[in-house]
Amino acid sequence: MVALRAALTGLPSYIPAKQIPGAAPLASNESPYGLLPAVAALLRAPQADLSRYPDMASTRLVAAIAAHHGVDADQVAVGAGSSEVCGQLLHAVVEPGAEVIFGWRSFEAYPMLTAVAGGTAVRVPLRDDALDLDAMAASVTDRTRLIFVCNPNNPTGTALGAEGLLRFVAAVPERVVIAVDEAYREYVDPGRSLDASVALRDRPNVVVLRTFSKAYALAGLRVGYCVGPREVIAQVRKAQVPFSLGTLAQKAAIAALGDAGEVARRVQLTVAERERVAERLRALGFAVPQSQANFLWLPLGRSSAAFAQHCLAGAVVTRPFPDEGVRVTIGRPEQNDAFLDLTEKWLTSS
Ligand code: PMP
């Protein structure tokens, strides 16, 4: 028998959401509005020679991201989606057996990537559907190397108050890297939570993760990045799989960054829809937490799988977390209406 790494044999594989032709895809927190016009135009134009390797340093993209955040280029590392950047960060800072803290439930890739990197996952239960920062700070030991702070948290959508986050960062020893995962930052009401890429920019141990998969509507091309202190970023870059970010992906992300007006318009639509759907769900009796992302959390407990199945039968794909809840992405208004209709039917039939 071949010898395999024990840490991975018992690990579940990442289960992607079902893709069902004709059904409303409200399971993966993607943009419902398709490619940004600037990206579509780029893809229609003749391309550079794709038989050549991409620019491994992603020089132009890194410069565009650095300009977007008002930082220097050596404070930015890129990868094939922020999932890959999470992995790079883990490989950059985690020694075998070191502890990696994150709230739970949170983004499913954290425990998987931690195991792949040889780290030990420390899951800190949520309190009232939100990250319990005090409990997370109290979980730090001499073995802790990295803490993921998912803000807003996936799948509950809750965002951290500025004061709590600042207190947390002050309480965590500087040798521990804090990765603030802001995959959904564009959907956050700026008054509700701070932008760590600005407010925590001078901290020597804070790295901010961002993605082009959500508000920038580029999930299929895979582009993510992190912004942080030079010393950490230099090491994160070393952990990138060579050439993992392709030429088209780099160019598309630059085009997407240049389409800021359209991104803002779409974000506004999604935020307005989020508030409309949340209000309706609450009126129907669901305890939906305040979401600052492009999805909502329905804490349905034991009914979660059955509810998701009911939605699926009505051609709406949601994301069930069995015995916990169901996450539904905010789609186009008509898709959200279809989901609300199914929810009402569920209530009358159960
Ligand atoms: N972080 C969070 C919190 C997410 O929800 C996701 C995607 N579901 C990601 C990171 C990764 O996104 P991507 O790899 O597509 O950039």
Explain what you see.
The chain is of the alpha/beta class. It has helices spanning 6-9, 37-44, 59-69, 82-93, 109-116, 133-138, 162-171, 196-199, 230-238, 247-257, 260-283, 304-313, 333-349, and strands at residues 24-25, 76-79, 99-104, 120-125, 144-150, 177-181, 206-211, 224-227, 295-298, 316-317, 319-321, 325-329. Strands 2-8-7-6-5-3-4 form a seven-stranded mixed beta sheet, sandwiched between helices. It has a three-stranded antiparallel beta sheet with strand order 9-12-11, with helices on one face. Strands 1-10 form a two-stranded parallel sheet. Helix 2 packs antiparallel against helix 10 and helix 11 packs parallel to helix 13 (333-349). The mean pLDDT is 96. The site of 4'-deoxy-4'-aminopyridoxal-5'-phosphate (PMP) has 13 residues, from helix 4.
